[in-house]
Amino acid sequence: MANSYQVRLFNKAEGIDQTVEVPEDSYILETAEEQGMELPYSCRQGICSTCTVMMGVTGISDRISIKSKAVKMAIEQDINSALKRSAIVDVDRIQVESENNKVVLRGDVRSFAARDEAERIARSEPGVYSVDNHLGVNWSSIVE
């Protein structure tokens, strides 16, 4: 069974915004015309250059999971490494957990500045969309 691709043709100047299904080993232009799209002459000749191509995965079937435990572990390790480099955060008192692009910080820190810094570090990690900061400020740990 040959693969096919959903291709969105978009050109604001020409008023084109349509998605076509293109079989593997087929030309996008020919398939679009076969499916009834009216394209400007310059598109048919390939000389316009106003359309751009963006390639990438937009959907996956067969219930394949993109996110893996390796990604989860990498996010947690990267955040822990960044916390270790911070001058005001005591990384040994913080637990970092990640799941589905969400990070949860637990534990305690010595100041509100350290709490904010830990959250900033977690938010700056690529792939993190939200952070739940459950860090408590433990003033008594300053005296230890």
Helical stretch tally? 4
The low-confidence parts are none
Please report the first level of CATH classification, the CATH class of the largest domain. Answer: Alpha Beta
Q: Roughly how much helix do the residues carry, as a percent range? A: 25-40%
**Total number of β-strand segments?**
5
Biggest sheet character:
3 strands, mixed
At the third CATH level, what is the topology name of the largest domain?
Answer: Histidine-containing Protein, Chain: A
Task: Provide the structure class.
Answer: alpha+beta
**Strand line-up of the largest beta sheet:** 3-4-5
Please trace the helix and strand order, writing H or E for each element. Answer: EEHHHEEHE
Taken as a percent bin, the fraction of beta residues is: 25-35%
Number of domains: 2
Task: Classify the oligomer.
Answer: single chain
Distance between the termini: 68 Å
What overall geometry do the principal axes of the alpha carbons give? elongated
Mean pLDDT equals: 79
Written account of the structure:
The protein has 144 residues and is of the alpha+beta class. It folds into 2 domains: 1-61, Ubiquitin-like (UB roll) (Roll); 69-142, Histidine-containing Protein, Chain: A. 28% of the residues lie in helices and 26% in strands. It has helices at 28-34, 41-45, 69-85, 112-123, and strands at residues 4-11, 16-23, 94-99, 102-109, 130-137. The strands form 2 sheets. The protein has a 3-stranded mixed sheet with strand order 3-4-5. A two-stranded antiparallel sheet has the order 1-2. Strand 1 (4-11) and strand 2 (16-23) form a beta hairpin. The radius of gyration is 25 Å and the shape is elongated. The termini are far apart. The model has no long low-confidence stretch (mean pLDDT 79).
